Description:
By secondary structure, this protein is an alpha+beta fold. It has helices at residues 3-32, 41-53, 57-76, 78-98, 109-129, 137-147, 153-172, 175-196, 214-223, 255-265; strands at residues 204-211, 230-235, 242-250, 270-276.
Amino acid sequence: MNFTDRAKRNAVDYLLMFLGAVLYALSVSYFTAPNEIAPGGVTGISTMLNHLFATPIGITSLLLNIPLFIWGAVESGRRFILRTIIATAMVSLLIDLFQLPAITYHGERIIAAVFGGILSGTGLGLILLRGGSTGGTDIIARNLNRRFPYFSVGRIVLISDAVVVALSAIVYGNIENALYAVIAIFTSSKLIDAVVFGLSRDNGKLMIIITTMPDEVTEVLTTKVNRGVTVLSAQGGYSHTARGVILCAVRPHDAYRVKTAVTETDEQTFMITVPATAIAGLGFSQGSLS
């Protein structure tokens, strides 16, 4: 891939990540925070600190993420953490920017929870789709999953969010606030699935990669993307050229990272991505990838 093509792809990536950051920031500033809903994660903690001490949500979230960035850089590599830092910085600054005008929704909290979840889920989905994240529990979950693969990423995030939601009931002094946070989290998760999975209910993706550079592609996938692969020997039916067929099972939001890494290594790669409804083994829970 030449410099121009890479620059165009990066421009599209960051444009969509910015759009995702705008949507996520709107969900916090206009819907959840004004209605005392703390839907999990570092943003949820920052929302509660804003309620207690009037600290800015965005900047507080960014500061809380700094030690996680350092941990993520050590565990996940520079490319992932760079996009995470950029996405988190955009979200944090936009949250505080959108709080400046006094245009917020104060009404039925069920509406605030649902629409907050819709906006945050769509925003997070766009960010994840282009290889970024908003830090927080996502970094914690990824890193812990690498060290303890029997704890799935989804389960770690769920536990982390549950702790924050339970804490919100104490901070706001009302169990209803925690229940509305659960609604927001549930709605957000469904929208993330819709954006990242393409409105499917698949548990994962099987990527079939046909390349004349199997050793190089395997090296990139196992070291930079941190995915296991299976390599088969094959030959072209017409050219009879020796080729490698690489099988790689991934979580849906990792499919983009795999595709990018492979095409950067071998521009002539032929790839097929198919749904995988049940994957079991090291790094995956039974029947699910989360």
